[in-house]
Fold:
Amino acid sequence: MTVIRCAISPDADDLFMFRGITEGLVDTEGLDFRVETADTDALNRMASGDGADVNAISIAWYPRVAAHYQLFDHGGSVGRGYGPALVAAKKLEKLEGLRIGVPGLTTTAHLVMKQVCTFTPVVIPIQPHARVFEALRSGEVDAAVVIHEGRLTWAQEGFELLLDLGQWWNAHTGLPLPLGGNVVRRSLGASTIAQVDRIVHRSIAHGLAHRDEAIRWLLARGGALSTFEQVDRYLQMYANADTLSYGTDGRAAIRQLVQLSGHPAAVDFVGGHD
Structure:
C-alpha cells in the first residue's frame, strides 16, 4: 500500500478538510494517508526541507518550494474582504516603526504586513493560542497580527482592531486574500498526484456536506474555539466554497501575492475544480 504523508496545521479549517480521510469517511482508493500536524511557520520550513507528500503552507512561501511542489487548486484558506487582524491593547496613531508580533517570517500575514508599513517583526508562534495575547499585555510587542482562531478571539481578549489585512489587500488589489494552501510533491508522479488530488478534494467536499457533524467533531477535540457558533463562524470564513476551488479570482490573487514575495515563481496548479 502506498503511504501518503500529510502535514497540516492543527487549526479547525485544516482538520475539517482532512477529517474525511483521517476518520475513514471517504474512499482513499487504496492509499494509506498518514496525517501529522505542526504550526504554520514550521510547516513552511518543513516544505523547504524534508517535507511531506502533501504539505500545508502559506501562499507567500510557495515560491520557495515551487521546484519540488505543485499547488492544489483546492484546500486553500481565502479571505474575501477579511484576513489576519492587526490588534493592540489600544488604538495607535501610526504603525510605522512599531514592534509588531507576527506568526512567522515565512507567513502570508508577514508578507502582507510588510506591504502596509515598515516595522520591526517579532515572531510569536501561534501555539499556544494565548501566547500572542500575553505578548501584547506584557508590552513585548506594540501590536500583533493574529491569524487562525486568534482572528475570532481578539475582541473577547480585550484588544482593539487597528487594521484588517484582508480588507487592506482587497482595497489595494480588488482581489481576495489567499492565505494558505496545500501543495503536493512533484516526485509522486502525475498518476499518483491526480489520485491524491481527487481524494483530498473528496474529503473537503464531505466536510462541507456534513458540516454540523464536523463541527461537533472539532469541538470534541478541544481548542481555542469552544462553542458551536465560534467554530461555525470560523469555517464560514476559511473552509467554504473557496476551499473546494480557488476560482479565477483566487488564482489571480495567488499569482499577484507570489510576485510580492521577492522570489517570483510560476504557480503550477494541479487540476481545477470550478
